[in-house]
């Protein structure tokens, strides 16, 4: 997986970089990061080639957290925050933040939009489609997909505005505020800044 430090280089294709960040976020939030992913994070470059890059500081914090914590500690943290039996400490589902409940109207609206895009949840995925990891994978597809009727900036802006932007900050705030959050506090900080950059870029298209 290409790591977001390379986002900071003007030589990297911007759309490829964005797709890779969404892929990284999907991996971090769907399950505890694999040993391979953590190894890649730990050796990632953190200094931006150009001064003033917005993602440099939060990216550096994420890399630092990966270096300071063991794979086992990060896996335990993921389970404490997002796993467990019954109610998790922090929800990763958009419907929870948009309606206060799971499997409500926001999920139905999302499924309608996914159907219009020709997308459907993989039967192997037990989580509902409003899980953050699933939504990040959809965004990655809308950026990197080959069907220009679907994978284009207009679709990206619409999907982002409807299904991510309204609640992502609430999730990140919950992760940052949790007393047992360490690695994922850094991950949430990076996520927050990245989505802020995305929102600003989409606003410029209007």
Automatic annotation (TrEMBL):
UniProt keyword terms in alphabetical order: Chaperone
Give the source's domain of life in one word: Bacteria
**Which PANTHER family does the record match to this protein?**
CHAPERONE PROTEIN YCDY (PTHR34227), DIMETHYL SULFOXIDE REDUCTASE CHAPERONE-RELATED (PTHR34227:SF1)
Task: Name it.
Answer: Molecular chaperone
Organism in which the protein naturally occurs = Polaromonas eurypsychrophila
């Amino acid at each position: 997986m290409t790591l977001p430090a390379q986002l900071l280089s003007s030589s990297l294709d911007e759309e490829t970089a964005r797709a890779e960040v969404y892929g990284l976020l999907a991996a971090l939030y769907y399950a505890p990061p694999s040993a391979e992913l953590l190894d890649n994070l730990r050796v990632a470059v953190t200094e931006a080639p150009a001064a003033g890059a917005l993602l440099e500081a939060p990216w550096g914090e994420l890399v630092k957290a990966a270096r300071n914590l063991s794979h086992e500690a990060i896996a335990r943290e993921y389970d404490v925050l997002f796993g467990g039996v019954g109610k998790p400490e922090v929800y990763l589902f958009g419907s929870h933040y948009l309606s206060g409940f799971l499997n409500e109207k926001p999920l139905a609206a999302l499924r309608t939009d996914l159907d219009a895009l020709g997308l459907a949840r993989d039967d192997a995925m037990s989580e509902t489609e409003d899980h953050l990891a699933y939504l990040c994978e959809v965004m990655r597809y809308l950026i990197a997909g080959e069907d220009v009727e679907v994978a284009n900036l207009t679709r990206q802006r619409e999907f982002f505005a409807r299904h991510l932007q309204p609640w992502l900050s609430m999730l990140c705030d919950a992760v940052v505020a949790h007393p047992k959050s360490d690695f994922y506090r850094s991950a949430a900080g990076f996520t927050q800044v990245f989505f802020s950059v995305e929102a600003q870029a989409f606003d410029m298209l209007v």
